[in-house]
Design brief:
Elements: H1 7-24, H2 28-34, H3 41-47, H4 66-79, H5 81-101, H6 104-115, E1 121-124, E2 140-144, E3 147-158, E4 165-171, H7 174-178, E5 185-191, E6 197-201, E7 213-224, E8 228-229, H8 235-271, E9 273-274, E10 277-278, H9 283-312, H10 317-342, H11 353-365, H12 370-382, H13 399-402
Parallel strand pairs: 1-4
Antiparallel strand pairs: 2-3, 3-7, 4-5, 5-8, 6-7, 9-10
């Protein structure tokens, strides 16, 4: 076993950390208060290769491995969750799905401009009446000649009002829809500008206020047949494999949020005095800080294991789900303790921990709630759940092939 990061990993960590401190941190509170997404960060992320960090060079990416993606997510969320969300949907949920399932033509047309940051991408599975129940979605797509006609609505979609490309899931077999047979779902690559496509932004969220979250409406949207990702009827498998990658990025991000809570709490515990001493000398404050350290180290190790498996090209649904469950729940607990350590100041936006608490709750819910993750882990342990091989697995990281 080797727990050391490579020089490339350390370079990525420093690059993203410096970028976040320079370009994101000075404006975080302003954007959070105004509930405003900062579009100017996208070309800055693209210029550093972050929007295609783990995509092979031949497809416009930086050719780095999946642990590099994780480290980038940790550093972005350390400063603000909304910026990590960009990587989760653009890279984790969309671009990696194209890398895994796309034809060569689809990769050249869509993956290359996404990896270089010329186009921004998102993922549309959730609907007003369907979240964890993926087969409960109501969107449909009927074949008419060389096109499919897409109808439906997606809700709570990150980057909905920003993205150029959308990975969308809809029923192509209505008989299977009625039977709740997931083999009737199909994945489509949809472009902004297709007739009948509209998007909008949702305001008033508890957290991730500086991130763009919205809805997508499809009214008789014509989608070329060549924009089917994978095969007709493979949509459910594509959606779930994409969620494995999205959960991986969420887990790393939540790990960064735990570290942010830890660092903020340590600073304040040395500044604040009560009863004539620093509050860091009080045993119960030390206990909360010790638990943050424990949760950070454990979450990071779980993330590293999942990343190692991804690099080997090994299925990691269980390991990634466990990392996502533990890291997100731990980040919420760490943020609650950080607010407690800051006392009344922790309840105001004068200190970052108030925002940390609001932001941390969302990750416990989206991309598979903690209850879903608990159920999955129990099913694995009891032997009720066994992963079937997919037709296309996420490709293993090959340093030579990915950098040429």
């Amino acid at each position: 076993m080797d727990f050391a990061f490579s020089e490339e990993h350390l370079m990525v960590q420093k690059m993203v950390r410096d970028l976040a401190a320079r370009e994101i941190a000075p404006h975080v509170k302003e954007h959070d208060r105004e509930q405003r997404f900062d579009r100017s960060i996208l070309p800055k992320l693209a210029a550093q290769g972050i929007l295609g960090i783990c995509i092979p060079v031949r497809y416009g990416g930086a050719g780095m491995d999946y642990i590099s993606l994780g480290l980038a997510c940790e550093e972005l969320e350390y400063v603000d969750t909304s910026n990590r969300v960009i990587l989760s949907v653009h890279v984790g949920l969309n671009s990696l799905a194209l890398l895994q399932w796309g034809t060569e033509e689809q990769k050249q047309k869509y993956l290359v401009p996404q990896a270089t940051g010329q186009k921004i991408a998102t993922y549309g599975l959730t609907e007003p009446a369907a979240g964890s129940d993926a087969v409960g979605i109501q969107s449909t797509a009927r074949r008419e000649g060389d096109h499919y006609i897409l109808n439906g609505e997606k809700m709570w979609i990150s980057l909905a009002d920003v993205a150029d490309n959308f990975l969308v899931f809809a029923w192509t077999d209505l008989e299977k829809k009625r039977a709740r047979d997931h083999s009737g779902l199909t994945a489509f690559i949809v472009e902004r500008g297709y007739p009948g496509l509209e998007t909008g932004t949702i305001h008033g969220k508890l957290g991730v206020r500086a991130g763009n979250t919205g809805w997508i409406a499809f009214k008789d949207v014509p989608v070329p047949a060549e924009n089917v990702l994978g095969r007709e009827g493979e949509g459910f498998h594509i959606a779930m494999s994409a969620l494995d990658n999205g959960r991986y990025t969420v887990a790393w991000g939540a790990t960064g949020l735990i570290r942010a809570c830890l660092d903020a709490s340590v600073r304040y515990a040395k500044e604040r005095h009560t009863f004539g001493v620093e509050i860091g000398q009080h045993q119960l404050v030390q206990q909360m800080i010790a638990l943050m350290q424990l949760k950070y180290d454990a979450a990071r190790l779980l993330c590293m294991r999942a990343g190692w498996l991804k690099n080997q090209g090994v299925r990691n649904t269980r390991e990634t789900g466990l990392a996502k469950w533990y890291a997100t729940v731990s980040s919420f607990e760490a943020a609650a303790d950080a607010v407690e350590i800051h006392g009344a100041y922790g309840y105001s936006d004068e200190y970052d921990v108030e925002r940390f608490l609001r932001n941390s709750k969302g990750a416990v819910i989206y991309e598979g709630s903690r209850e879903i993750q608990q159920l999955i882990q129990a099913q694995y342990a009891l032997g009720y759940r066994k992963d079937k091989p997919l037709r296309c697995e996420l490709p293993a990281y090959d340093p030579e092939a990915w950098t040429n």
